[in-house]
Amino acid sequence: MPVSKFCFVGLGIAVLAGACPQPTGDEPTGPSVATGTGGRSSSSGGNGGSRSGGSGGSGTGGVAPSGTGGASPSGGSPGSTGGSGAGTAGAAGGPASGGAPGAGGSAGGAGSDAGAPADVANTVADSGSTPPAVEPNAPCPRCVRIFNGKDFTGWEAAPSTWTIVGGAMRGSGGSSRAAYTKDDYGNVRLIVTSRMAPQNGDHLGILFWGDRPADPMKPKIDNAGWVQWMPPFGGMWSYHPPMHHGLRGMKVGNNPVPGTQWHTSEILLNLDKGTLRAAVNGVEITRYTHEWPTERVDPTKRIIKGPIGMMRHGGGGSEYKDVFVEVDPEDKLVTVK
Fold it and tell me: Which helix (H) or strand (E) holds 126?
């Protein structure tokens, strides 16, 4: 059962012990570009041109190996991007012992006008694929979308509870109390849009800094060390053993919307300092500092790098969409203007 909780309200600041709303069940409810060089000599002609900004190199014919006829070396190939000018024909291959001399290489092609940035080009070259496109609707420059609104790629979500409705993950009934990420996070910015539909005496919850569940079909929440923040009213809860209980956070703003309306929450987590800052619809409403910010071992006190979970708490329908993260963010709420 939750411990007793209280609020101090004055001058717009309140201290929460857990969440101030009355509990239902086990928790409270709440309303250089790099420049390349020209081609080098080789047995098959050098590559003319640079990747980005170099001049077109001259390919030269290779010397045929001893004992075989010389192959006809080709000239430098065209510069991939950014080479200026054309490569020159490769020099004739040297005579082989017992074979005919190699023919001259063909002329190198002209380079094009502009080179690609070295980091992008190297990414393509190393991975063999095109880099991911920049998310046009990302709420911050380094934010990455981690839920695509079509399936549960990157997530663990029991089908008995979690479905996708209108681009949102929806938790209702079944055996799972949370859908959670396959990646672990410590210092992170999370931005998510959510609502209860219907509320049915229930509330939303976002889980972090806890143990990774062993069973995705029935993930362990109680005594697993999770910390929970509850949008949109900003309540805090702990799932540390031996018994889950309310957490004392500072309320610095008022909840701007009811939980049944779509609202966007931003949570700024710093595992190193054990701090949380949270905002709803551009209004900062919660600040929290963990009592043992550097504890990583004692299961009754520790906070650790772990998955992010979207919670299905009780009998309502919990919906989450447009989920973004930024790893190692600056200490600034980007949705608060």
Answer: helix 118-127
Task: Write out pLDDT tens, residues 32-87.
Answer: 333 333 333 333 333 433 333 333 343 343 333 333 333 333 434 433 333 333 33
State the Cα–Cα distance between residues 264 and 80, nearest whole angstrom: 45
Q: State which residues of the chain have pLDDT below 50.
A: 1-132
177-215 pLDDT, tens digit per residue, is 999 999 999 999 999 999 999 999 899 999 999 999 999
| C-beta separation of 24 from 14 below 8 A | no
Q: What tokens appear for 132 in the block?
A: 């991911």
- Total residues belonging to the chain: 337
Please tell me the pTM assigned to this model.
Answer: 0.64
Beta bridge partners of 106: none
Tokens representing 69 are 């006829």
| Contacts of residue 109, Cβ cutoff 8 Å, sequence gap at least 6 | 48, 49, 56, 76, 77, 78, 79, 86, 87
Q: Using an 8 Å Cβ cutoff, are 94 and 101 in contact?
A: yes
CA atoms lying within 13 Å on the CB side of residue 71? 10
| Planar angle of CA 230, 213, 191, nearest 5 degrees | 35
Residues 110 and 56: beta-carbon distance below 8 Å: yes
- Residues 137/52, Cβ–Cβ less than 8 Å: no
CB 73 within 8 A of CB 101: no
Interval 173-186: pLDDT, tens: 999 999 999 999 99
Report how far residue 283's alpha carbon sits from residue 333's, in angstroms, rounded to the nearest whole number: 9
Torsion of CA 234, 255, 289, 221, to 10 degrees: 10
**Chain centroid, CA 74 distance in Å:** 46
Residues β-bridged to residue 276: 269, 288
Cis peptide before 242 (omega within 30 of 0): yes
Chain centroid to Cα 67, Å, comes to: 58
Q: Residue 12: in which H helix or E strand, if any? A: none
Amino acid letter, 295: E
Which amino acid, residue 191?
A: I
